[in-house]
TrEMBL record:
<protein>
    <recommendedName>
        <fullName>Reverse transcriptase domain-containing protein</fullName>
    </recommendedName>
</protein>
<dbReference type="InterPro" id="IPR043502">
    <property type="entry name" value="DNA/RNA_pol_sf"/>
</dbReference>
<dbReference type="Pfam" id="PF00078">
    <property type="entry name" value="RVT_1"/>
</dbReference>
<dbReference type="InterPro" id="IPR000477">
    <property type="entry name" value="RT_dom"/>
</dbReference>
<feature type="domain" description="Reverse transcriptase">
    <location>
        <begin position="1"/>
        <end position="150"/>
    </location>
</feature>
Length: 207
């Protein structure tokens, strides 16, 4: 299995699609293959010890229910969310994560790294500042995790607005395709709607 993965990742070439066409071929020396079914499994294997390291950091995490371990982080593929119940506990989680990144020679995209403080309004206190690699992290009112927007007041206005815009875009695409094909087949329209529009508002509906 290891030799197979070495062959797959030994010489990866890629091109970038632009408005002017495809770019020149270049070599990819980092990250996993985008769109590959193995990718969501390879990265978690690589950072398997991260949850253990974060668990060693001081702090209780978030209580879910009795007889269930408190949640200290959410991790899916290369998307990570650190969770803490106090500002100092979050900074300690970040410190543990920073040491782990140094150990595995990983880099973090700081442009996509934000802090969301869940509170019912009010200004941030002086101690509500967090650093990673000596860089101050941005505190935002909402952020996206796995396609769902979470607000600092746990309201779903931004999320619903985004999903509605995505539905409208998909619906307009269906209309354009059917007009281009010169058809008004109702059954075809319903099938396209069920496959292109309907899944969008249901995504994350459990939340």
């Amino acid at each position: 299995m290891i030799k197979l993965l070495q062959n797959i990742y030994g010489n990866i070439k890629a091109k970038v699609k632009t408005t002017d066409g495809l770019s020149e071929t270049f070599t990819c020396n980092s990250a996993v293959r985008k769109g590959c079914t193995l990718s969501p499994w390879l990265f978690p294997m690589y950072i398997n010890e991260l949850a253990i390291e974060i668990g060693k950091s001081i702090g209780n995490g978030i209580f879910i229910y009795e007889n269930f371990q408190n949640v200290m982080l959410l991790l899916f593929a290369d998307d990570l969310a650190l969770i803490a119940d106090t500002p100092i506990h979050l900074q300690r989680r970040l410190n543990s994560f920073e040491k782990y990144c140094e150990k595995l020679n990983m880099t973090v995209n700081m442009d996509k790294s934000n802090i969301v403080v869940l509170k019912n309004g009010g200004e941030l206190s002086k101690n509500e500042e967090w650093y990673f690699n000596n860089e101050l992290l941005k505190v935002v009112s909402y952020d996206k995790y796995l396609g769902i927007y979470f607000s600092n007041r746990l309201k779903w206005t931004c999320c619903c607005k985004t999903l509605r815009m995505q539905c409208e875009k998909a619906l307009n695409m269906i209309k354009h395709c059917m007009c281009k094909l010169g058809t008004r087949n109702i059954n075809l329209g319903f099938k396209l709607f069920d496959s292109m529009v309907a899944p969008t508002p249901y995504y994350g509906a459990e939340l």
